[in-house]
Amino acid sequence: MIVEHLNLVDFRNYATADLTLHSGPNVLVGRNGQGKTNLAEAIVFLATLGSHRVSSDAPMVRDGQEFAIIRASLGHAQRKVLVEVQLNRQGSNKARINGSPSKTNELPRYAHVVLFAPEDLQIVRGDPSSRRRFADQLLIQRTPRMAGVLGDYDRVLRQRTALLKSARARGVRGEGLSTLEVWDDKLIALGSEIIDARIRLAADLQHPLAEAYATIAGADHRPELDWALSVRGGDPEEGQGPSSGSGTEADQRGEIAELFRSALQAKRASELERGMTLVGPHRDDLVLRINDLPVKGYASHGESWSVALALRLASAELLRAESPAGDPVLILDDVFAELDADRRRRLAEITAGYEQVVVTAAVESDIPDVLHRHVVRIEAGTITDERDPSSRSARSGTERDD
């Protein structure tokens, strides 16, 4: 799959923008604050229904506007697909595919993208929410229907937590809140499906992760990943506990549901006391290890970067192997500036073989020669294609949002 053309309206700093891309490497060069990352973010949104920079959609709508439009022409072998999403500052987003209204969670069926960005280091070193977001965005690309499951879980979680807060304010204790059981059932059904999908994803990433890490780092440090689950005890969100371990595929979903229900019952008093839901996939953590030690807290800066890059490369290889659409688009957003010369070279050599690569950089010399091909310059609100130096295809509302 490749992105042939990207059109934006009122997205981030762009009032309008048009960007033509080609197969192979594409380089977007410009000083910080010109909007390079905004272009990358728009492409990624079509594939993951989320941003790698913010947790809500409203910041992506240009100041003073009520909605933004992302529109892209995608090439799937001989097939062309036009996908479009309207991001609303308030209310649900809207989507179109080839001009016909569609559900937004259909978009990842057509757009397959893997983003490498400086923020990736937070997947390794940050709090559990960064790792959950990484996993869930990959889940959506792998199985688009999971966007609906994750959205439904979030809604049930908010409603159940609101009920707990109300009960705390009214001084309800113990078993005095029978209506909570209705929400327990919904939380368990949706949450068990998410946990099961995450565990399977971790298992499927294990082999490509090990191969990618060895290639990037030039050494075999036995990288591993597994989920620490709140349904098994403890609270991974708060660094407590325990218990990773995934169970067998045959009994996994049923076991998870039973553990989920037991854990909710065990935490009932604490939940009523604190006014929050303490069990479920929103409290879990993806544990990363090299040489049998947790990456967070033990790995060096270089090792942490190798793990982060390997996670993205493993994601790309998984999507490449499973998707009938071919390679995902790889976006390397200002990542070369963060790497030493050796990792820079290794990453460039691996990614150059993908069908389409988009590289952003503030300093053009940071880009390895193997990726230094079709160059687009972004300056003072204007996108200029070097193949057509007279082009002036974008106008920004402000120049200080990259």
Give the SSE order as H and E letters: EEEHEEEEEHHHHEHHEEHHEHEEEE
Poorly predicted runs are: 246-250, 389-393
In CATH, what is the homologous superfamily of the largest domain? P-loop containing nucleotide triphosphate hydrolases
Helix content: 25-40%
For the terminal residues, how far apart are their CA atoms?
Answer: 26 Å
How much beta, percentage-wise?
A: 15-25%
Rough shape? globular
Fill in the CATH topology of the largest domain. Rossmann fold
Given helix and strand content, the structural type is alpha+beta
Instruction: Using the coordinates above, name the CATH class of the largest domain.
Output: Alpha Beta
Which short descriptors sum up this protein?
alpha+beta, 402 residues, six-stranded mixed sheet, Rossmann fold, globular, 2 domains, 39% helix, Glutathione S-transferase Yfyf (Class Pi), Chain A, domain 2
